[in-house]
Amino acid sequence: MKISKVAFLMTLLFSFSSPVFSQMDSEQDTIPKIDVETIVVSATRSSSSVNDVPLNIAIISKRQIEENLPLSPVEALQYEPGVTRQSDGGLASTPIIRGLSRERAPVLIDGNPFVGGRIRSYSLIDPFQVERIELVKGPASAFWGSDAVSGLVNIVTRKAESGYGKEFKFGASVYGGFNSVNEMARGRVEIEGRGNGFDFLIGGGLRNANNTMTPDGEIENSQFESQNIDFNIGYSLSENQRIELSGKYFQNDNVGFPGGLGAPGPPRVDRRFAPDTQTAINLAYDAKNVSDKIESIGARVFLKKQDLHIDQITNIYFPMTTNTNRMITAKLDVDVPFMGAKFFSTIRHNEKAKLTVGLDYLREHRIGTHRDLNIKIFNPMGVMVNEINRPFTQIQPDSYSSTIGIFAIEEIQVSEKLNLLLAARFDNVNTSIEDAPFDIPAIAEIYNDDNKSDSDNAFSGNLGIKFKATDDLSLTANVANSFRGTDLFSKYHFTAVGQGFLVPNPDLNPERGVFYELGAKFDNDKISAGVNFYQNFLSDLFVQENITFDSTASVQWQNIGKATMTGVEWNFKVKFGTLSHFFFSGAYINGTNDVTDNPLPQIPALQNWLGIHFRDKQNKFFAQAEALFVGEQTNIAPNEIETPGYTVINLKGGINLHNMIENFPHTKLMLSVTNLADENYRSHVSRGAPGNQNTFMEAGRSLNVGFVTRFGAAVH
Fold first, then answer.
1. Cis ω on the peptide bond leading into residue 267 (within 30° of 0)?
2. What is the DSSP letter of 33?
3. Among 456, 601, 582, 625, which Cα is nearest to 542's?
4. Rounded CA separation 651/611 (Å)
5. How many CA atoms lie within 13 A of 695 on its CB side?
6. pLDDT on residue 92
7. Interatomic CA distance for residues 633 and 643, integer angstroms
């Protein structure tokens, strides 16, 4: 049934394509092209060349995303040194950047914050929709504000070409894929056009999977179903001005949650997101090269809402038996609407200096959890002796957060060899929670008139230097500070966890950090090599600590005094032929609680990627063999267990039919085998292990296929 939905989607578009696309402009590029690197990024809030910016920035291109066949953007990011994929099993995974969790590396969609998703953020993004991913490694609070403690991810989605001064032209794209490890079938179709000043792209997709298989057996409750639709409509007032209206509806349903809190384990919990939806609408205006002095002006207004419905069944057993004592069935609604706006402008002082200034505003409303509860109580013989029903009602108060930030970023080319970047930002973060309701009376006693609202101010700065020692060798140095405002979930959220509680902490203070990084990069026609060393000195880091609350074993987010992250990253690439290369990259990260001198939790083990990529000079086909080497992790936090090292081998390949067959539509076919040796392994940072009772292994061997076909105006 799941596969048939995707097949129907594909068939529908192909049947539609025959009469429509026969009328399209059939021009095809006669010379094969390959986007080796996207050189202009917006990480500094202005359009700058990645070769000139003294920040550690990586670009994952559309070609790389398509050819790696990622389940979500996280799998596309995992090849970058310093990035580790943290799995929650099934659909949910997030990146750990330089040893710090997802909450310290915000994800942006076209420069707009993605709020309220936490573990779900990346699962609500279709990688087929992505044009490129911009990854900033290192604190970016001076550019983007709260949470950018270890870096940030900006996902740029696809849009049609500008229609200014062009005749109207239609196009379409079709995407499809299948993964054997979880029988996942997925597809997406897009229709786009441009001309007479207008441009549009409308797309929709499906993505459905069964439980994931491992060499140790299947991961129970890791299935998911997904559907989405999105649009991007633009009008160019002139060659350098464009107004854009975009929106999306994304729904994940029947999403199993096998890892983390509330996952299968003692007591056994069956938890599903059913459904998890995101709706968004965005209005944008951009003007470029407005005058000799004004390089650009931009404005954004966006509204988003995330609605999460959780179905959860918890079985609590009699001591030392497998007989059920209580069966607790809960249906939870967690809704988070938020809105934001921003204005920014880049002003040229001269040909070698420019200043970007701007204002950001964000408001989040976390609607208190609503719950429908049924409790069945059994005797030791398995006979139900009592039943309790509590109707659907709100069990937590509403909470609110608003942030306003102003920033200024100066980029200066001091000489042909020296570039400087100076950034400064001020943020004000206000949080508050309403007086009622509190389903757990003991939780209500935590709050008083002094801790139900809070206001935090933060100043952030960044100084970056890039020195081109020779035509091939450049040296960089960065000094920055960062902060993470107290988010509503960590500060106010509470729930039952096992037989205890996740206890809120309204007295939680913002995290703050001071950071420096030194880097060197050598790049010529044959060899590209780089190394970066950094340290991140953190204070008041949020860590989930074990506590006793209301006479039960519970957990709470608390500030630890000080912590230090130290890391080294390296990458090496040797080109051969026209488009082929060997590659080797990796990272070592160490995190220490400076108060106790213990290691921090969830620190990735030593990791290296090694591989060879072959592509013929006409870009007709490619093949890649790669291996991920992960060392054992023995430097562990007190509540963790050691994890052994492992090696994962992947094989990938594909053909570009449009470069092989004259006048053939732009078509790529991709094939890969991941975890070729069917390695049975568990990542140290997976949510299921270590640090709690819920463990699961990573996915086993999988045969993956995919294709992309583009027609008409979509070929660009």
1. yes
2. -
3. 601
4. 10
5. 15
6. 79
7. 5
Determine phi and psi for 142, rounding to 5 degrees.
-65, -20
Amino acid letter for position 351: E
Helix (H, G, I), strand (E, B) or coil at 326: strand
CATH assignment of the domain containing 155: 2.40.170.20
Share of the chain above pLDDT 90, in %: 68
Structure tokens at 308: 């999460």
DSSP state of 122: G
Place of tokens 């209005």: 283
Under 8 Å between Cβ of 409 and 422: yes
Residue 709: which H helix or E strand, with range? Answer: strand 702-712
Rama region for 645: left / alpha / beta (φ>0; ψ in -120 to 50; rest) = beta
Tallying the residues shown for the chain, one arrives at 716
- What is the full DSSP assignment across 411-457? EEE-SSSEEEEEEEEEEEEEEEE-S---SSHHHHTT--TTTSEEEEE
pTM of this prediction exceeds 0.85: yes
C-alpha angle with apex 161: 160 to 164, nearest 5 degrees? 125
> Are 549 and 576 a contacting pair, CB within 8 Å?
no
Residues with Cβ < 8 Å from 135, sequence gap 6 or more?
Answer: 57, 58, 59, 60, 77, 80, 83, 97, 151, 152, 153, 154
- What is the number of structural domains in the chain? 1
The structure tokens listed for 148 are: 């950018």
Query: 609: exposed, middle or buried (C-beta count within 10 Å: 0-12, 13-18, 19+)?
Result: buried
Task: Write the CA distances from 18 to 15, 109, 635, 711, integer angstroms.
Answer: 6, 34, 60, 11
Copy the structure tokens of residue 597.
Answer: 């001198």
Q: Among candidates 356, 354, 348, 466, which has minimal Cα distance to 51?
A: 466
Strands 495-497 and 500-503: antiparallel
Residues 6+ apart with CB under 8 A from 353: 410, 411, 412, 413
Q: What is the pLDDT of residue 27?
A: 38
401 within 8 A of 136, measured Cβ to Cβ = no
How far apart CA 697 and CA 62 sit, in angstroms, is 30
Q: In which domain, by residue range, is 113 found?
A: 2-712
Chain-centroid distance of CA 182 in Å reads 21
DSSP state of 486: -
Q: What are phi and psi of 363, to 5 degrees?
A: -130, 130
Which 8-state DSSP code applies to residue 144?
A: H
Task: Take residue 465 and report the two structure tokens written for it.
Answer: 């230097």
- Phi, psi (degrees; rounded to nearest 5) at 69: 50, 50
Higher pLDDT, 19 or 323: 323
Chain-centroid distance of CA 617 in Å reads 33
What is the structure's pLDDT at 638? 83
The DSSP bridge partners found for residue 104 are: none
Mention every residue, 6+ apart, whose C-beta is less than 8 A from residue 103. 118, 147, 484, 487, 490, 542
701 CB-side CA count, 13 A: 7
- Residue 49, classified by CB atoms within 10 Å of its CB into exposed (0-12), middle (13-18) or buried (19+), is exposed
CA distance 600 to 617: 47
Identify whether the C-beta of residue 654 lies closer than 8 Å to the C-beta of residue 670: yes
- Paired sense of beta strands 130-137 and 112-113, if any: unpaired
Cα 663 from Cα 314, distance rounded (Å) = 59
**With bands split at pLDDT 50, 70 and 90, how would you rate the model's confidence at 17?**
very low
Contacts 24+ apart (CB under 8 A), 492-495: 492/366, 492/396, 492/397, 492/399, 492/431, 492/433, 493/366, 493/396, 494/396, 494/440, 494/443, 495/369
Non-local CB neighbours of 30 within 8 Å, separated by 6+ positions: none
The pLDDT tens digits for 667-701 are 999 999 999 999 999 888 886 644 445 567 899 99
Evaluate the omega torsion of the peptide bond into residue 337 and state whether it is cis, within 30 degrees of 0.
Answer: no
Give the span between the Cα atoms of 709 and 711, in whole angstroms: 7
The DSSP secondary-structure symbol of 100 reads B
What distances in angstroms separate CA 391 from CA 271, 310, 367, 499, 501, one per listed residue?
Answer: 20, 16, 18, 22, 21
Peptide bond into 506 cis (omega under 30): no
